[in-house]
Fold Excalibur calcium-binding domain-containing protein.
Amino acid sequence: MGYRKGYYRKDGTYVQGHFANNRSKSFSGKNKNGCVILIFLFIALGSIIACSESSDSSGNSSNSDCPTKTCGDFTSQAQAQSAYNNNKSCYKSLDSDGDGIACENLKK
């Protein structure tokens, strides 16, 4: 695009200056399609990177604050259940099926 100066017509009227598209239609159409593809690729790549970083950081922060315990670390189901009841967010791995009962395979 370029700025076109004002000019006088043959009949004596003045046409004020304005911006004019100096490019051909075929050139500008190809350019727009290429830009749309590049924008889409950048958005896709950015979302992939953002998702991978957020899953890595959330895993590291929960592991540093919570002890890593499994059902094998407890001798009875009652011990595992009391630990689970004290801090359900840290010991969510003790309840594999999500029914609120920790280490169902241990003896009571």
